[in-house]
Specification:
This protein has 24 helices and 21 strands. It is an alpha+beta fold. Helix content is about 50%, strand content about 10%. The strands form seven sheets. It has a five-stranded mixed sheet, sandwiched between helices. Helix 9 runs antiparallel to helix 10 and helix 16 packs across helix 23.
Length: about 675
């Protein structure tokens, strides 16, 4: 009997027809293992994971492997995106035992959940031998198995402990973090480190804010070079927009083809802020097309944003995306085919597998003659139409609260910047307008879903699918990312509802996730008790729960003037500061928020009857210092604290600038406002 058919997780549904007698993560599964006196296999992965698919095809779809598992184990399948708390605990165990981790994650545990043997991907022959060995050890060497499990749990507890050294996250520490990043920068290819190379979105966001505060040209140079290298590389979809999860090489050529919502949301923020600060046309184009990717490819009408597009198409990586020169000629004709091969670096030898090439942009297309640009756009359109006839990767349409929060924040920022630079004279003005319309609609759909479906009895749920909310409770990153998103929506729309909801989420997080010394656990005090309570302060693929919460607290306190939220943010940042100082690459989001606090953050209120078209509003958003909040609307608008008691001046729009709750006199001209923000 396979119990996964009613799951909300597409990953679990992929295994619903396996010969393995899978259980979802549940008390009942562990009770069954205890009743049968057998160990538990905990198999953790996610829908877009290539090697998860490989292990499923090799082992979990095999009748003999299924029989071994069913006879000797209780098998539990876990979606790491749905249960990041379970994933965090057992990943810590896997890393403690093997020195590395990844997915699929394969954990053998006692009926009380204590892990005693951990690994990742196993080929079928190795996995079969492992199952036989674990079965024998459980029957004949039980005492040793239990001792091993106790040692692993002790290691997990030490790795997940809260407390430890704290320090103020001050200017010298942030300066040192920027220098630390610069020392590990890849001068040739951009980014940090070697292969595989991941988009360093949170570090880039930090460096942009650092450059704004300090004027450091090196920080801006690193961001611009990395942003251009990624946008011209194979990691970026040159036809439809959107970024793949990572590059398997050091120079962004061949991606691991899965496209994750969280990467694209965070990268949209990078390119949007680079565009805002520099006016860079490449940043503008990539921000626009990434927003379009989110709205067209990951958004479902009336719902939120899906989690990912799969790495594989019909079991083959790159089947949708790679090209040969002959395929380009077939799609475009001889002349345009040669033009496209040269422009996108498609060679006879290939840059990928089997003589195929991943499209890369060999030359600039953002500042070229109009006829060249028109030809490029025509070729892109024709190639995309051809590609749409190919088999397409599957979509993991599970809605994750935290990642939808990241997308909402990114799109809200994009819409503000797009409004700053809108011009009917732009050759692609109609395209930009269309993207802003669909992105705005997708953003509002996602926000409504979070507010009405994911928020149940005042508490966040982690996931939903097809409008049906799942059972997993929200973790700290959900509360932080969604609160930050609702603060961004409040600034964009001027609607008090979003600020109220943000405050409710933050209050819940402060009450249920707090740990001693200003730290926070990743799970609530009334959540399911695992063998350890995770509390990871490091930023990895996404902001840590702690960093996300701090970001929400900082925005909320600036928008409301309620100082206790700032005090909580400062205390939490102090617990992360030692990581910022020693390991800046794993604290980018925390450092970004630290820059906001060091800057002020500025609180800018524009009292106006025309928030959409007032030049003061545009100037405030264009010149906003790091982490500043900007609200515009009629004076004393209900639900908007920053507009309270802030009237027009002599019937004219007025901008009120405060920093750290200290306010200056209102100004009525753009020049005066820019001077105040300089």
């Amino acid at each position: 009997m396979n119990r996964l058919a009613s799951a909300t997780s597409p990953y679990l549904l992929q295994h619903a027809d396996n010969p393995v007698d899978w259980w979802p993560w549940s008390d009942e599964a562990f009770a069954e293992a205890k009743r049968r006196d057998v160990p538990v296999l905990i198999s953790v992965g996610y829908a877009a994971c290539h090697w998860c698919h490989v292990m499923a095809h090799e082992s979990f779809e095999n009748e003999q492997v299924g029989a071994l598992l069913n006879d000797n184990f209780v098998s539990i399948k876990v979606d790491r995106e749905e249960r990041p708390d379970v994933d965090a605990v057992y990943m810590t165990a896997t890393q403690a035992m093997t020195g590395q981790g990844g997915w699929p994650m394969t954990v053998f545990a006692t009926p009380d959940g204590t892990p005693f043997f951990c690994g990742t991907y196993f080929p079928r022959a190795n996995f079969t031998r492992l199952l036989q060995s674990v079965t024998t050890a459980w029957k004949d060497q039980r005492a040793e198995v239990l001792r091993q499990g106790a040692a692993v749990v002790e290691a997990i507890g030490g790795a997940q402990a809260v407390g430890g050294p704290t320090a103020p996250l001050d200017g010298p520490l942030l300066d040192a973090a920027a220098g630390n990043l610069a020392s590990g920068y890849d001068e040739t290819n951009g980014g940090f480190g070697g292969a595989p190379k991941f988009p360093p979105h949170m570090n880039l966001l930090f460096l942009l804010r650092h450059q704004q505060r300090t004027g450091d040209p090196r920080s801006l140079e690193i961001v611009r070079h990395t942003a251009e290298a990624m946008a011209r590389g194979g990691i970026y979809d040159q036809l439809a927009g959107g970024f793949a999860r990572y590059s398997v090489d050091a120079h962004w050529t061949v991606p691991h083809f899965e496209k994750m919502l969280y990467d694209n949301a965070l990268l949209l923020r990078v390119y949007t802020q680079l565009w805002r600060l520099t006016g860079d046309p490449l940043a503008r184009r990539v921000a626009r097309d990434t927003a379009r990717f989110l709205a067209d490819e990951l958004h479902r009408p009336g719902e939120g944003f899906a989690s990912a597009l799969d790495a594989d198409t019909e079991g083959v990586e790159g089947l949708t995306y790679a090209w040969t020169p002959a395929q380009l000629v077939e799609a475009l004709g001889e002349d345009d085919g040669r033009f496209a091969a040269d422009l996108f670096t498609v060679t006879a030898e290939g840059t990928f597998e089997h003589g195929m090439s991943v499209l890369r942009l060999a030359r600039d297309v953002d500042d070229v003659a109009p006829e060249v640009r028109a030809r490029w756009q025509r070729v892109v359109g024709q190639l995309l139409a051809t590609r749409d006839t190919r088999p397409q990767p599957a979509r993991d349409d599970k809605v994750v609260a935290a990642w939808n929060g990241l997308a909402i924040t990114a799109i809200a920022e994009f819409l503000q910047v797009a409004a700053l630079y809108a011009s009917p004279q732009d050759e692609d003005a109609n395209l930009m307008e269309g993207v802003t319309i669909v992105a705005d609609g997708a953003m509002r759909d996602a926000a409504e879903l979070l507010a009405t479906v994911h928020l149940v009895d005042g508490r966040l749920r982690r996931v939903s699918r097809d409008g049906r909310v799942g059972e997993p409770a929200g973790v700290l990153e959900d509360y932080g990312c969604v609160a930050e998103a609702f603060c961004a929506l409040h600034q964009l729309t001027g609607e008090g509802r979003w600020l109220t909801l943000a405050g409710q989420l933050l209050d819940t997080a402060l009450e249920h996730f707090a740990a001693p010394g200003g730290a926070y656990y990743d799970t609530a005090d009334d959540a399911e008790q695992l063998v350890a309570r995770p509390a990871d302060p490091t930023d990895n693929a996404t902001p840590s729960g702690r960093s996300a919460l701090i970001a929400g607290l900082v925005s909320y306190t600036a928008l409301t003037g309620e100082t206790r939220y700032r005090e909580a943010a400062e205390a939490a940042l102090a617990t992360v500061a030692p990581i910022v100082g020693r390991h800046a690459r794993f604290a980018g989001y925390a450092a970004m928020v630290g820059e906001a606090l060091l800057s002020g953050p500025y609180e800018i209120a524009v009292a106006t009857d025309d928030p959409a078209g007032d030049p003061l509003v545009a100037a405030a958003r264009r010149h906003a210092p790091p982490g500043a909040v900007v609200v515009a609307g009629r004076p004393d608008q209900p639900g908007v604290p920053l507009l309270a008691d802030r009237p027009l001046v002599d019937g004219r729009s007025a901008a009120y600038v405060c920093r750290g709750f200290v306010c200056r006199r209102p100004v009525t001209s753009v020049d005066e406002l820019v001077a105040e923000l300089g």
